[in-house]
Amino acid sequence: MGLFLKDTPPLYSFMIHQHQSMENQLNKSCSIGSHLFWEINRLCYNYSDMSDQSIQVMEDITEPESDTKTKAGLIIGGIILLALFGGAIYFLLVSDKTATIRDIFIILLGFELAAIGITAILLIFQTTRLINMFQHEIKPVLDAANETMSTLRGTAIFMSDSFVQPVIKLNSQFASIRQALDMLRKLVKK
Question: Which parts of the chain are beta strand (E)?
Answer without folding.
Answer: none
